[in-house]
Design a protein that fits this description.
Elements: E1 3-9, E2 11-12, E3 24-25, H1 28-43, E4 49-56, H2 64-80, E5 83-88, H3 95-103, E6 108-114, H4 118-123, H5 130-142, E7 148-154, H6 161-171, E8 178-183, H7 201-217, E9 221-224, E10 227-229, H8 236-243, E11 247-250, E12 255-258, E13 261-265, H9 269-277, E14 283-288, H10 291-302, E15 309-310, H11 311-318, H12 325-336, E16 340-345, E17 348-354, H13 356-360, H14 362-369
Parallel strand pairs: 1-4, 1-11, 2-3, 4-5, 5-6, 6-7, 7-8
Antiparallel strand pairs: 8-10, 9-10, 12-13, 13-14, 15-17, 16-17
Length: about 375
């Protein structure tokens, strides 16, 4: 079996006001110690890794010297991995770092574009300009990377669907292979929480409907609620999460799922470093996922993909029969209101997936399956 490897780089130049991921301001001395600790943790890995994802935070806020130290410790894993992704930001990427990534066989870059409108970038607290974002895409392509993903945010307060449609039409003109479109969520404890009642849900629904109709026409297959890719360029690492694969997470707040056990690391870099130095697992909590809970959770993830839930495969993964009387009633009720599509073979349901309307209410459908 092959596993995914996620490495969390928690440093940022500034905290985005909508972000609820664990991050902290860049500190060079702390970063030096952290990369040393990470390198030692990487050396202990004794499982086969086929996807690597380095995220944050902002991995490219690290200076080239520390990036090289991190990648050197990963070299044996990178030699064997099929997909290697690094998250990059326009304001902190340069040619030296891109060449370093290329030397270490990074073959997928995820650019934190977020928008091609200056006013939106300013509102979102982003540190780059539209010009820098476009230059970043150009530099990435010029240096030989042919798998380029971007993140976009839509559904800001007062944002209109027409404006978003024009913006997305400009984005697809870029040399991209993957687009992730996320509606703005105003999470508790973020600065944007105060805007939660200012978002027009009707307008957001129009924008999402445009995404799922427009992007496939422009060659981007809709394969998960918020994710679209050109043929052959789905994010294999993220598919592990959605399809029930196993993965190892390194760094504060990172999550692992191996051998039916989920672990989450503590969300404090100083404590993470202390525990690693003592040879202790830096775990905040762990839980063993028994068949029913594992099945419910996996159903709530798989239903978010375009493929949906293949029932025979689902039963094989979870050792759990999805169709109890209670679950069957839920499924039929979701079908009756137009959120689920059921596929039958020889009079028996073998697959269920979201309809286009269902994608609009994917969180609600997922929670019903849990």
């Amino acid at each position: 079996m092959s596993y995914g490897l996620y490495i969390h780089i928690p440093f940022c130049r500034a905290k985005c006001p909508y972000c609820d991921f664990y991050s902290l301001p860049y500190d060079n001395s702390l970063a030096q110690i952290y990369i040393d600790i990470l390198s030692k943790e990487i050396e202990k890995i004794n499982i086969e890794i086929d996807t690597v994802y380095i995220g944050g935070g902002t991995p490219t806020v690290l200076p080239r010297e520390l990036l090289e130290r991190l990648f050197f410790s990963l070299r044996k894993i990178l030699d064997r991995a099929g997909e290697i992704t690094v998250e990059v930001n326009p304001e902190s990427i340069d040619e030296d770092k891109l060449l370093l990534f290329r030397d270490y066989k990074v073959n997928r870059l995820s650019l934190g574009l977020q928008s091609l409108e200056e006013s939106k970038l300013k509102f979102l607290g982003r540190l780059h300009t539209v010009k820098e974002a476009l230059q970043g895409v150009e530099d990435i392509q010029r240096l030989g990377f042919n798998n380029i993903s971007v993140d976009l945010i839509y559904g800001l307060p007062k944002e209109k669907c027409d404006d978003w449609c024009k913006e997305l039409a400009n984005v697809v003109e870029l040399p991209l292979t993957h687009i992730s479109c996320y509606s703005l969520t105003c999470e508790y404890k973020t600065k944007f929480y105060r805007f939660r009642k200012m978002i027009d849900e009707g307008e957001v629904a129009k924008m999402y409907t445009f995404n799922i109709n427009f992007l496939p026409k422009r060659g981007f297959y809709h394969y998960e609620v918020s994710n679209f890719s050109r043929k052959g360029f789905v994010c294999k690492h993220n598919l592990k999460y959605w399809m029930g694969g196993e993965y190892l997470g390194l760094g504060p707040s990172a999550v692992s799922f191996i051998n039916k056990e989920r672990k989450k690391n503590i969300s404090n870099i100083e404590e993470y470093i202390k525990m690693c130095k003592k040879g202790k697992e830096p775990i905040a909590y762990r839980e063993r996922l028994l068949s029913k809970k594992r099945a419910k959770e996996l159903a709530s993830l798989k239903i978010r993909t375009k493929e949906g839930i293949l029932l025979d495969e689902f039963k094989e993964l979870t050792n759990f029969d999805f169709f109890s009387i209670e679950e069957y009633r839920k499924i039929i009720s979701l079908k009756d209101i137009g959120l689920l599509k059921l596929y039958e073979r020889n009079g028996k349901i073998y697959r269920l997936s979201l309809t286009n309307k269902g994608f609009l209410f994917s969180d609600e459908v997922s929670s019903c399956l849990v």
